């Protein structure tokens, strides 16, 4: 990793890693609450994308001499509690799709801000932009369940 981009690359890699790990974790927390098979299938496809990108981010990070930061236990606990609370009384497909749209939008926003303000290596930016583009498609797919 070139010295000029080391901290920028690390920040984007960390944000992208957190993004895909949180996406996968949220899907794991919510998939059993979903009754609509079409939505379940969509989530399984998105989770596969997240898991594949987790591996790609770990490999790229390793090649660039960086170890991506895992999501913290507090964030996991907070997300788990929030998902369970929000679905306690409302397990409507539309409600769950809305929750997923909101969560995915937060991930896109955070990662996009990093990418747009960055002078990072092309490979890092390409992977981050691929994650963003896929999440935007995911949101479009979720709209049919709203």
Keywords for this structure?
146 residues; mainly alpha
Assigned CATH superfamily: Ferritin, core subunit, four-helix bundle
Q: Report mean pLDDT, rounded to a whole number.
A: 92
Q: Percent range for helical residues?
A: over 70%
Q: How far apart are the termini?
A: 43 Å
CATH architecture: Up-down Bundle
Shape: elongated
How many domains comprise the coordinates?
A: 1
Structural class of the helices, strands and pairings? mainly alpha
Q: What order do the helices and strands follow?
A: HHHHH
The level 1 CATH classification is Mainly Alpha
pLDDT < 50 stretches:
none
Largest sheet: none
CATH-derived topology: Ferritin
β-sheet strand percentage: under 5%
Quaternary structure: single chain
Describe this entry's structure for a reader.
Helix content is 77%, strand content 0%. The chain has 146 residues and is mainly α. The protein is built from five helices and no strands. Helix 1 runs parallel beside helix 3 and helix 4 packs antiparallel against helix 5.
Short description:
The chain is mostly helical and 146 residues long.
Give the arrangement of secondary structure elements.
Layout: H1 6-30, H2 37-63, H3 73-88, H4 93-116, H5 122-142
Helix pairs in contact: 1-2, 1-3, 1-4, 1-5, 2-5, 4-5
């Amino acid at each position: 990793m070139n010295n000029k981009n080391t901290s920028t690359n690390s920040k984007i890699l960390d944000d992208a890693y957190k993004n895909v790990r949180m996406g996968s974790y949220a899907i794991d927390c919510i998939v059993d609450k979903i009754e609509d098979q079409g939505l379940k299938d969509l989530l399984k496809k998105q989770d596969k994308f997240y898991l594949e990108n987790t591996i790609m981010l770990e490999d790229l990070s390793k090649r660039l001499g960086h170890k991506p930061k895992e999501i913290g236990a507090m964030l996991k606990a907070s997300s788990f509690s929030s998902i369970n609370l929000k679905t306690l009384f409302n397990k409507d497909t539309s409600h769950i799709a809305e929750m997923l749209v909101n969560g995915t939008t937060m991930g896109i926003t955070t990662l996009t801000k990093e990418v747009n303000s960055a002078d990072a290596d092309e490979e890092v930016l390409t992977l981050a932009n691929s994650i963003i583009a896929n999440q935007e498609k995911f949101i479009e797919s979720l709209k049919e369940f709203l």
